[in-house]
Specification:
Mean pLDDT: 95
CATH architecture: Orthogonal Bundle
Strand content: under 5%
Largest sheet: 2 strands, antiparallel
Strand order of the largest sheet: 1-2
Low-confidence stretches: none
Protein name: Geranylgeranyl diphosphate synthase type I
Family: Belongs to the FPP/GGPP synthase family.
Helix content: over 70%
Order of helices and strands: HHHHEEHHHHHHHHHHHH
Shape: globular
Number of helices: 16
Distance between the termini: 25 Å
GO molecular function: metal ion binding; prenyltransferase activity
Keywords: Magnesium, Metal-binding, Transferase
CATH superfamily: Farnesyl Diphosphate Synthase
Cofactor: Mg(2+)
Structural class: mainly alpha
Radius of gyration: 21 Å
């Protein structure tokens, strides 16, 4: 079975090598431009690396081979996914006006503080947002560069094309999913309760489930030349597991410990996220409670008492328990897809371990 810690070391080495080369280019433009690579290096030095791990696990499931060093094509593909994820988080934090990410200032807040501390002309917040948008765009381009380098090293041109197509599809789907997320925050009141839950499911599927697990897993398997049957089994495992992963995120966004998650407790409530959890709550509470929930949700000035009030409402409605049951059901669907999957037992064991890792977590 692939050694997760060894893989993470390879991924970090590949990212460091790539950022070293891009820092040289930025320095030729201007010393100030290296701020982009400096923040990127800091931002990419942590995280759970789930996308890279699933990508590698997909490769291992169809080839039976693990990466042996940082130059392996599958390590490069995993590193590309990590940079793409970083770009998505930078942009997501701007959209959500998030102050922190992984316990540190988010990109736009960091640039905002730089402007404010230097007492430059203009508006600090505007500068922060503008600089962070450019950083996110740069990271998107860098993810393409890393993936191109990785796929060029494959001996199978058809496998490389299939993997590239998977990445393109993932990029389009997650962007559309992000758009639907912000749309629902504004348009939710025009839909029935049942429609709100269904639309929240769609957001969860395309903003997170497919992009976090199914696509990285399939990309790795496609790069490894996996058969139609192998890819099908991995997708049947990856999609429900991705849904369970996002539903766990929804619970952590409301009930998570800020010292563990790196984000303020109840952040999703302040941002007004119309998640499946919220949809289930609204269908289970009284009309008066529903009106109170709708009034509180999306208010960036929510107090700790307000957060506690909403948390209590969600728990007492039974929505939290129902979502936990749903997570268990989705994990069962995922693991059942592996029962007759055309891959070796070691690969199946690795996938089972990852299923636990992404759904039984507190951050």
């Amino acid at each position: 079975m692939p050694d997760p810690q060894r893989l993470l070391t390879f991924i970090q080495n590949r990212l460091d090598e790539f950022l070293d080369a891009r820092t040289t280019i930025l320095a030729r433009v201007a010393h100030e431009a290296t701020e982009f690579s400096g923040f990127s290096r800091e931002f990419l030095s942590g995280g759970k690396r789930f996308r890279a791990r699933f990508c590698h696990q997909g490769w291992f499931a169809v080839t039976g081979e693990s990466a042996t060093d940082a130059s392996s094509p599958i390590v490069g593909a995993g590193a590309a996914l990590e940079i793409f994820h970083a770009a998505a988080l930078v942009h997501d934090d701007i959209i959500d006006n998030s102050d922190t990410r992984r316990g540190r200032p988010s990109a736009h807040r960091r640039f905002e503080a730089q402007h404010r501390d230097a007492a430059w002309a203009g508006d600090s917040a505007e500068y922060g947002r503008s600089a962070a948008i450019l950083l996110g765009d740069l990271l998107l381009g860098w993810s393409d560069e890393l993936l191109d380098d990785a796929l060029a090293a494959l001996h199978d041109a058809e496998a490389a094309r299939s993997a590239r197509d998977e990445f393109r599809r993932m990029r389009t789907e997650v962007t559309a999913g992000q758009f639907l997320d912000i749309l629902e925050e504004q348009s939710w009141s025009t839909h029935s309760d049942a429609e709100q839950i269904q639309r929240a499911e769609t957001v969860a599927t395309f903003k997170s489930a497919k992009y976090s697990i199914e696509a990285p897993l399939s990309l790795g398997a496609l790069a490894g030349g996996g058969s139609h049957e192998q890819i099908g089994a991995l997708r049947a495992y990856g999609l429900p597991l991705g849904i369970a992963y996002q539903l766990r995120d929804d619970l952590l966004g409301v009930f998570g410990n800020s010292t563990v998650t790196g984000k303020p407790s109840g952040d999703d409530l302040r941002e007004g996220k119309r998640t499946v959890l919220i949809g289930l709550t609204r269908t289970a509470v009284s009309t008066q409670q529903r009106a109170e929930l709708d009034r509180l949700l999306g208010n960036p000035e929510l107090t700790d008492a307000d957060i506690e009030r909403v948390q209590t409402m969600i728990r007492e409605s039974g929505a939290e328990a129902r979502l936990e049951e749903r997570i268990s059901d989705e994990v069962s669907k995922a693991t059942s897809a592996l029962e007759d999957a055309p891959m070796n037992a070691t690969a199946v064991d690795g996938l089972m371990a990852l299923a636990d890792a992404v759904t039984q977590r507190d951050a």
